[in-house]
Design brief:
Helices cover 31% and strands 19% of the residues. The chain has 643 residues and is of the alpha/beta class. The chain has three domains: 260 residues, 2-Layer Sandwich (Aconitase, domain 3), CATH 3.30.499; 159 residues, Aconitase, domain 3; 176 residues, Aconitase, domain 4, CATH 3.20.19. Strands 21-22-23-24-27-26-25 form a seven-stranded mixed β-barrel, surrounded by four helices. Strands 7-6-3-4-5-20 form a six-stranded mixed sheet. Helix 2 packs across helix 3 and helix 10 crosses helix 12. It binds alpha-methylisocitric acid and iron/sulfur cluster. Keywords: Iron, Iron-sulfur, Lyase, Metal-binding. This is Aconitate hydratase A. One of its GO terms (molecular function) is metal ion binding.
């Protein structure tokens, strides 16, 4: 039987385990990326591993999230990251250079390689034919130290593309269509592999839009073949020598195949407050809009901005709204200036924001109270825009631009019929904002710069013999890491300071959480399905651990968050019978008598709700390696005790 492309790349990087869906495998990681909001913890953790230099082929530290700099803290983090990169042998992408995923695609991604990133949208690299996976920071630190990355061997879903996109329809509409079919938890434990005739009609940045937002499926990653389009993209980036052809075997078997005829794809929109709450744009056309934002790591290539500019050309945006543009990289800005795209955008009334995450993560450009904002981004979780009661709609650049002109949600096909032009000939390569790694001797002299807001990463306790702890919070389904550990302009500057950031855990959902946890000294969280979806931020495990959370019991978990919980010594249990979720209320005391012995001996443990006397079974599916990690109180303790 032939192999899928995913299997081929995984096989080539396999270090341990058997490539059989569900088994734990270890893979060699060729490249890593971090961004500043997760990066400070990564390098603090790497530093505590006492390894002088990274062991990967290439690692890049980007600054793109915390660039608002309302006080000293963000820039202190940037300086820490720059000095850590110099010390440990990384490339450093300076603030202003752009968003990590866009730059990595342009300047560093290589077909057939593995990339691990401390950001959930690392799968953007799948557009180039890489296996690119998002993970918690500690896993990325371990990979930089030369350790394999461990994951459940995924099932591979085939997405068979035929036909080609019609004018005013775009790659964003393809991934929104997939999200409508598969939902935000449909991809857990799976890789989405795109293939078929339709692939040829999509450029690498269009493919990257699809693999980027594949993160919203909960998928391990998404991947495209490496073909002539990939070669052309690498040629433009003056990196053609790194190209190689890659595809699945003709007789490869997928666990399921999704058929998409691109001729039939129409403009789609994700409604508040989930990326899978998808409808056709035509179904909600006419809804008044207060704000439009174009850009982010999902849709900010030169041709994305180009089509928006061509739609807006010579016109003025509607009076009732404001339009913001966040270009993906300096390369995009510069080529946009050369191509006249930026002039068209500015003339239409657009506000050019920094080439950074910005509005996508509530770092500025927050919408009006109760406002409707239409964005080309990838997440529309409640409150993420920085305005608690805003309604965020996710669309393509075509729909966003047409909407900006009419002031109401508009099907771009009703507005005009403009085909995407190819502006890539305006691209010029300039890496002067990427600082190259120092040689070993010079690196040894570097002193790491640490501002007063940078505090050490706390460690968890080894696992207790018995657990007796109150339920600090009971949540519903699809809780995101934005709910657990919010971002935004106020909280993001605290990412290097766990004692301070922990004051904001569950702030919007349960403002009393921090005080309650502190008072109780230990605790349990009870959750529904797909608990911890979204961002890879390990702070969503680290800060609850700091507050004494010992276990999370849910109906099911999202992949990255579950791994983060284990890395920080919190046990992820699921209900053996999901109906038992109803037996528990907030404030009840849960007792697990033989916790330490139990998790080692069996996958199913008995728990008692001391408050109502009811017994129920809970399960774990930790691999042996993960069990050892959890018994020792997390990956840092585990790594230390073995070095
Ligand atoms: C996001 O899009 O949610 C983020 C902000 O990029 C996060 C990383 C973080 O929280 O720092 C992600 O996607 O992992
Ligand atoms: Fe940045 Fe938004 Fe992309 Fe996350 S999703 S990396 S916040 S642009």
């Amino acid at each position: 039987m032939g192999l899928t492309l995913t299997e081929k790349i995984l096989k080539e990087h396999l270090v341990s385990g058997e490539l059989k869906a569900g088994n734990e495998i270890g893979i060699k990681i060729d490249q890593t990326l971090t961004q500043d909001a997760t990066g400070t913890m990564v390098y603090l953790q790497f530093e505590s591993m006492d390894i002088s230099r990274i062991k990967t082929e290439l690692s890049v530290s980007y600054v793109d999230h915390n660039t608002l700099q309302t006080d000293y803290r963000n820039m202190d983090d940037h300086r820490f990251l720059q000095s850590a990169a110099a010390k440990f042998g990384l490339h450093f992408s300076r603030p202003g250079n752009g968003i990590c995923h866009q730059i990595h695609l342009e300047r560093f991604g290589v077909p057939g390689k593995t990339l691990l990133g401390s950001d959930s949208h690392t799968p953007t690299g799948g557009g180039l034919g890489m296996i690119s996976i998002g993970a918690g920071g500690l896993d990325v630190a371990a990979a930089m130290a030369g350790a394999p990355f461990y994951l459940k061997s995924p099932e591979v879903i085939g997405v068979h593309l035929t036909g080609s996109l019609q004018p005013m329809c775009s790659a964003k509409d393809i991934i929104l269509t997939v999200l409508q079919l598969e939902t935000v938890k449909g991809g857990v434990g799976r890789v989405y592999e795109y293939y078929g005739e339709g692939v040829k009609s999509l450029s690498v940045p269009e493919r990257a839009t699809i693999t980027n937002m594949g993160a919203e499926l909960g998928a391990t990653t998404s991947v495209f073949p490496s073909d002539d389009e990939t070669k052309a993209f690498l040629r433009l980036q003056k990196r053609e020598e790194l190209w190689k052809e890659l595809s699945a075997d003709n007789d490869a078997e997928y666990c399921k195949v999704i058929e998409i005829n691109l001729d039939e794809v129409v403009p789609m929109v994700a409604l508040p407050h989930m990326p899978d709450n998808v409808k056709k744009v035509s179904e909600i056309a006419g809804l008044p809009v207060n704000q439009v934002a174009i850009g982010s790591c999902t849709n900010s290539s030169i041709n994305d901005l180009g089509i928006a500019a061509d739609i807006l050309d010579g016109k003025t945006i509607a009076e009732n709204l404001s339009l913001g543009i966040s270009p993906g990289s300096r390369q995009v800005i510069n080529s946009g200036i050369e191509a006249g795209i930026i002039k068209k955008l500015v003339s239409s009334g657009a506000r050019i924001l920094e080439s950074a995450c910005g509005a996508c993560i509530g770092m500025g450009f927050s919408p009006t109270s109760g406002g409707v904002t239409v964005r080309t981004f990838n997440r529309n979780f409640k409150g993420r825009s920085g305005t608690a009661d805003a309604e965020v709609y996710l669309v393509s650049p075509e729909t966003a631009a047409a909407t900006a002109l009419t002031g109401v949600i508009t099907d771009p096909r009703d507005f005009a019929s403009i085909s995407r032009k190819d502006y890539t000939s305006f691209i010029e390569i300039d890496d002067n904002m990427i600082i190259k790694p120092l040689g070993e001797t010079d690196a040894a002299e570097v002193q790491i710069v640490r501002g007063p807001n940078i505090k050490p990463c706390p460690k968890a306790d080894a696992m207790y013999e018995k657990l007796e702890a109150p339920v600090l919070l009971k949540t519903g389904d699809n809780i995101t890491t934005d709910h657990i550990m919010p971002a935004g302009a106020k909280i993001l500057p605290l990412r290097s300071n766990i004692p301070e950031i922990s004051k904001h855990v569950f702030e919007a959902l349960a403002p009393e959480f921090h005080d309650k946890a502190k008072k109780a000294g230990n605790g349990v969280i009870v959750g529904g399905e797909n608990y911890g979806q979204g961002s890879s931020r390990e702070h969503a495990a680290l800060a609850p651990m700091y507050l004494g959370v010992k276990a999370v019991i849910t109906k099911s978990f999202a992949r990255i968050h579950k791994a983060n919980l284990i890395n920080f010594g919190i046990i992820p249990f699921t209900f053996a019978d999901t109906a038992d979720y109803d037996l528990i209320s907030e404030g009840d005391v849960i007792v697990i008598d033989n916790l330490r012995e139990g998790v080692q001996k069996t996958r199913t443990l008995k728990a008692v709700n001391k408050s109502n006397g009811k017994e129920f079974n809970i399960e774990h599916d930790m691999a042996d390696r993960q069990l050892e990690i959890i018994l020792e109180g997390g990956l840092l303790n585990y790594t230390k005790s073995r070095s």
